[in-house]
Design goal:
The chain is an alpha/beta fold. The protein has 2 domains: about 120 residues, NAD(P)-binding Rossmann-like Domain (Rossmann fold, 3-Layer(aba) Sandwich); about 170 residues, Dihydrodipicolinate Reductase, domain 2. About 35% of the residues lie in helices and about 25% in strands. It is built from 10 helices and 15 strands. It has a 9-stranded mixed β-sheet with strand order 14-13-12-11-7-10-9-8-15. Strands 3-2-1-4-5-6 form a 6-stranded parallel β-sheet, sandwiched between helices. α4 packs parallel to α5, α6 crosses α8 and α8 packs across α10. Bound molecules: nicotinamide-adenine-dinucleotide (NAD). Nicotinamide-adenine-dinucleotide binds next to α1.
């Protein structure tokens, strides 16, 4: 099977390495306008370096294209890959507006080509175990946070490029909550506020440096998301995602889940490998076989998580809570 990696930055490297470890799979193309980045990944994984995804697709005829380029490029590049007959694994966010997201869905359905969104945290053993353990339990609180420094990726300094805090990172716990709680974990309303206390003096900065979201869930739980880029250098990054249920607290920390039971016992579920590798392999298996039942999310469901994050941005901008429609119960 032949795979093209588009975008050889942080995520392109992770996905390229994941694809290279899938049986009978070769990375045939690495695309990046930054030639040194493309060459470096080709040097490690093989294939050919390109500066244009169109040239790469035409020259190498990949079965699968993995999009790790900046968000504003995803939809057009995905459509080009589909037109060439490839399946697509696209990094989140698919786009920063829902009309573009819907357009890609129409194109992929018409062509009968798989488009999978990289929301990898669904693909850990801990996520599966938590989903099973939370089944039928009442949930009180869902809480996630991240404290980090100003993004090292300059694109993420601009909301119009990266989507802002919640689209950039808290889409993951929001999506994971939806996975482990099913329809009980569908947010029904969102209210967000932001602050910009540190970096607004910098002309290149068009993001928020702190962001707080309040959520209500269909199952009756409430919850919050708090993020900041305001951590100072040297302060270790801190992030987590907790679900407090009746007789059970689930703590997600990176790829690990901790289940704290009412009798005082603690069950630790470590991922066998980094979640992106598992998800990448599930995608390549689907590309090879055409079978998608093992995938833990379809395109429309993935973009429901994005829609929640974009609603949070709208709420932050307008200062008003937003009521969310929710899809049919699963
Ligand atoms: N799933 C996750 O956990 C996760 C984590 C971080 C980032 N991301 C997402 O991954 C995507 C990439 O982020 P990143 O952190 O790797 O950014 P990055 O800046 O490290 O890499 C992006 C690369 O795309 C290249 N690029 C620019 N224009 C291009 C084009 N026309 N064609 C091909 N490549 C092009 C850039 O030169 C750069 O090397 C973003 O959508 C981001 O939100 C996901």
């Amino acid at each position: 099977m032949r795979v093209a990696i588009v975008g050889a930055g942080r995520r392109g490297i992770v996905h390229g390495r994941a694809a290279a470890t899938f049986p009978d799979c070769e990375v045939v193309a690495v695309v990046d306008p930054d030639a040194a980045r493309a060459q470096a990944l080709v040097g490690e994984l093989g294939g050919r370096a390109f500066s244009s995804h169109l040239e790469a697709i035409a020259a190498t005829q990949p079965d699968a294209v993995v999009l790790c380029s900046p968000p504003p490029l995803h939809v057009a590049q995905a459509i080009d890959a589909i037109a060439a007959g490839a399946t697509v694994l696209v990094e989140k966010p698919v786009a920063l507006d829902l009309a573009s997201v819907a357009h890609l869905e129409t194109v992929s359905r018409a062509a009968g080509r798989l488009v999978l969104v990289c929301q990898q945290l669904r693909y850990t053993a801990g996520a599966l175990r938590a989903k099973q353990a939370l089944e039928g339990r009442r949930v009180a609180l869902v809480h996630s946070w991240v404290y980090r420094q100003k993004p090292d990726i300059k694109g993420n300094w601009r909301r119009s490029w990266g989507g802002g805090h919640i689209v950039e990172n808290q889409i993951h716990p929001i999506d994971l909550t939806r996975y482990v709680l099913g329809d009980r974990g569908e947010p029904t309303s969102v209210f967000a506020r932001y602050g910009n206390r540190f970096y607004d003096v910098d002309a290149d900065w068009d993001n928020w440096d702190s962001y707080s979201v309040s959520l209500e869930f269909r199952g009756g739980a409430v919850g919050g998301v708090a993020t900041t880029y305001g951590a100072f250098p040297g302060l270790p990054q801190s992030s987590g995602h907790d679900i407090i249920a009746e007789g059970l607290a689930v703590r997600f920390r990176g790829n690990r889940a901790e289940l704290h039971w009412a009798d005082g016992s603690v069950e630790i579920v470590e991922a066998a490998e980094e979640a992106t590798i598992s998800m990448n392999h599930a995608f390549l298996e689907a590309t090879r076989t055409g079978e998608t039942s093992h995938l833990r999310q379809d395109y429309a469901d993935a973009n429901r998580s994005l829609a929640i994050c974009l609603a949070a941005n709208d709420s932050a901008r307008t200062g008003h809570p937003i009521t969310l429609g929710w899809p049919d119960a699963d």
